[in-house]
Structure formats: structure tokens, C-alpha cells
Design brief:
about 300 residues, D-Maltodextrin-Binding Protein, domain 2, 15 strands, 3 domains
Length: about 300
């Protein structure tokens, strides 16, 4: 295979993986016009149309889908072979793409950004905050951070935090006006501030547990959002009951009395935050260094006890 043919196939796989000429061009370090020309050359050489293009989307044709199914694993295997040849002792460098929950970005990543940058100046952290459940391998990310129960299959997982509580909370003003629910069933008489999953668009159910008994509740209310910056202020302003992870914003509001907890005996804990990456992918030196930083292993050349697991 000539060099130009390899470049064409790599460009084609990048476009299909990202479903976007713009994102693929950014990943490859090309202009969009140059990438379009490469794809046209590939289609001309093969004598078949590989991509369906509109002003808003790009998707593979049937021949394109078959070509992608064969070529994408081969190109990834080649990347892995090159990475392994570099060796585990190689200097951390290059761009590290991380897909993370907003809660994890605030709680785990942001406090350590400066320390990581000073220790590894040749690494560019490309951090995408996404509260959905993304296909990190398919979308070109090196790792993701999610709550443990929502990890993709066939992933290596590294625990970053202890388990997280789910809390039902409301403002004192709301509870004074509407009363306090004693069971999940009584939530049907209350306004509920709901969370919509990014990507799927589904509204999350509220899962309660008590003495081994599980209950899932779907409530109505005047606010639905996919971001903490909306649902937490809605609860603080007395618009209803919120059921959410116990992040810093909620913990602080509980501590100073701006929110009060309800249904505490029904609220479960869920697996904590995990960093995960493909089990079929060689760990890049930059990712290894990033994990060490998130676990504070780099502070004194020791390992924080009891915090790292794999599954």
C-alpha cells in the first residue's frame, strides 16, 4: 500500500468514526477542504461512493460501512503496535482526549490541572464534558470518566472516588408549603425537578431502595434539564424536589440549610466515579501519568491506598 492510499483510508475511518468532516479534520490536523479532497480521491480510486453527505450530517454508504468495518480495527491495531513499540517507559507527550461527567470534571480533574501540566508539559489535555454515555472508542477518546454502574462493556476501570449517595432534597420554603414526603409513593403529590439524559433524551427515573426493596418513580414538575447548573438552582429556588448525586453544590447547600434532605432512609448509594478505557487498547504513557495524577500517586511516589481497581 502506498503512502497516499494509507492516508486516504485513515482519513475515511476518521470521518466515519466522528460522523463529521469538521471533527475528523481537527483530529487529523487538516483543513476541511483538504480532507474533502482526500475522500474524493479515495472514492475516485475505488470507483464507489463511500459517504452520504448533507449540509448537516455525514454517514457511510453500504460499501462505505463494509470498508469501515474491515479497516477501522486494522488501523487501530497498527496504532497499538506503534504505541507498544515506544514502550511503557516513554515520556508522556501528545494529546490526551478525555470524556467526563461535569461532576467528575469539577471534583476530580479541575483541582489537579495545574499539577499535571507542570509535571507533564508536553501533554495536551483535551477534556470534553459530557453527561451522556458516549462511545469513547468510537468517538476517538482515550478514556472516559463515569459513575461505575454506567460503564461500557469490555473496559478497564480505575476507581477514582468512594461510592456516591443519591439524595432527594428540597428547599425549606418548598417543604413548608407542600409538606415532606414520607415514602416514594407520596412524591406523586409533589413537583419533581427532573434530569434528562443527554444523547438519548430520556428522563431519568428515581430509583429508591429500602431493606432490599427497590422502587422506581417517574414524577412531574415544571423543570427538566440535563445540567446541574439548572436543576440545583431550581431546587434552591423552591421549584420542587430534586433527586441527584451528592456533589459539592448540594452538600454545601445542605450544610448551610438552603436545602433539606427527604426520604433519607430510601436513598441508596451508587458506585463512585471510575476512569475507564478500552481493554483492547495499549495504555499510552500520557494516560498512565494522568491516572497517577488523579489518584494522587504522583505526590510522594506512593499509591493512594484502596482507590484503584479494575474490572
Amino acid at each position: 500500500m502506498r503512502g497516499t492510499e494509507f492516508a486516504e483510508l485513515k482519513a475515511f475511518v476518521a470521518v466515519v468514526d466522528r460522523a463529521s468532516f469538521s471533527r475528523a479534520a481537527d483530529h487529523l490536523g487538516l483543513s476541511r477542504s483538504a480532507l474533502s479532497q482526500i475522500i474524493r480521491q479515495l472514492e475516485s480510486r475505488l470507483g464507489v461512493r463511500l459517504l452520504n453527505r448533507t449540509t448537516r450530517s455525514v454517514s457511510p454508504t453500504e460499501p462505505g460501512r463494509r470498508l469501515h468495518e474491515r479497516m477501522a480495527p486494522m488501523l487501530r491495531d497498527m496504532d497499538e503496535a506503534v504505541a507498544q513499540a515506544v514502550g511503557t517507559s516513554a515520556r508522556a507527550a501528545g494529546t490526551l482526549r478525555i470524556n467526563t461527567l461535569s461532576m467528575a470534571a469539577k471534583k476530580v480533574i479541575a483541582p489537579r490541572l495545574g499539577r499535571f501540566a507542570r509535571a507533564h508539559p508536553d501533554v495536551v489535555l483535551d477534556i470534553v464534558i459530557d453527561d451522556g454515555l458516549s462511545d469513547i472508542a468510537g468517538e476517538g477518546f482515550d478514556a472516559g470518566i463515569r459513575v461505575g454502574g454506567r460503564l461500557q462493556k469490555d473496559m478497564v476501570a480505575v476507581r477514582l472516588t468512594p461510592d456516591i449517595e443519591l439524595l432527594a432534597v428540597a428547599s425549606p420554603e418548598y417543604l413548608a408549603e407542600h409538606g415532606e414526603p414520607r415514602t416514594p409513593a407520596e412524591l406523586s403529590h409533589h413537583a419533581c425537578i427532573n434530569w434528562r439524559f443527554p444523547g438519548s433524551g430520556k428522563v431519568a427515573g428515581w430509583e429508591f431502595r429500602k431493606k432490599g426493596n427497590g422502587v422506581e418513580f417517574f414524577g412531574d414538575g415544571t423543570v427538566i434539564s440535563n445540567h446541574q447548573d439548572i436543576v440545583v438552582p431550581a431546587a434552591l429556588q423552591g421549584l420542587g424536589i430534586l433527586y441527584a448525586y451528592n456533589d459539592d453544590g448540594i452538600a454545601e447547600a445542605l450544610q448551610d440549610g438552603r436545602l433539606e434532605r427527604v426520604l433519607a432512609e430510601w436513598s441508596p448509594t451508587v458506585p463512585g466515579l471510575y476512569l475507564y478505557y478500552s481493554s483492547r487498547r495499549y495504555m499510552l504513557p500520557a494516560l498512565r501519568a494522568f491516572i497517577d495524577c488523579l489518584l494522587d500517586r504522583d505526590l510522594d511516589h506512593g499509591i493512594a491506598p484502596g482507590r484503584s481497581t479494575t474490572r
